[in-house]
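Page 37, top half.
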Amino acid sequence: MAKTSRRSFIKKNILSGLFLTSTVPLLQADNTIKSERIVPALKPYTRDYKSIDWDNIREQFLFPKEKHYLNTGSLGPSPKVVINTVCETIEKLETSVSHGRHQIDETHEKAAKFLNVTADEIAFTRNATEGINIAARSLRLKKGDEIIITTHEHVGGASPWMALEKDFGAVVKLVDLDFNGVNNLQIIRDNITENTKVIAFSHITCTTGI
């Protein structure tokens, strides 16, 4: 029953592929959201969680202390260091009457170095949904071409492909995953045919976290 409901939801309710946009809070005149504490740098993939100052990290977020926000993979709250940087950058651009293009170019270079690619291979979008829509609409797919996605995709990850099915007849194949994760690669392989042109799925599912 659960599989049928998930398939029905994906097929019927996420064809629109709407872009999500976010808003940025403005820096107040008295600079009240300015953080006086610095978020400690976290070592990637650290297992020594006791060495992390979690209280300090929690202080960087503005939402009430009694709340616990776990949806940071979507539209999550930003820490003060991010809010301050955004607000200070906006203020600097507004007062200098600058387009800030040099900052975008510099960020392209930094991102490219981090990902070991060239700067012209980097494209900034407002969010993942917009990025997937751009990628989906840029492919030269035709009627009958198959697109494999799973029944565990986030709405933003599934709707761009569903829209292609609706607009010109591409075939979206929904694959049910194994909840223990062991057989998922083989499940996807078994669904590949000579008509398969796209395989798109999350490396971590939004439904179970596998």
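Page 37, bottom half:
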Amino acid sequence: MKSGTGFFGNQDPLKFFRDAAKAVPTSFISTYETQAAYFSTEITNVEAGGKNPDQAWEDAVNQTNKTLRKRGIQV
């Protein structure tokens, strides 16, 4: 993007994007989003698919524990 061809009207597009990026709000992405998604999926399975709630809970907990073990957290 930093070429001397005049394509950008002799402007520095990197400066434009760098300055614009400062105005973008930051957000926190939890490291537990994957585990939360397991429970969300199982709630949907119960509500829309008629899955047994006890089985759905057990499945979500098992999936969560499996993921945590893969990350080195013993459950």
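Margin note: The chain has a mean pLDDT of 87.
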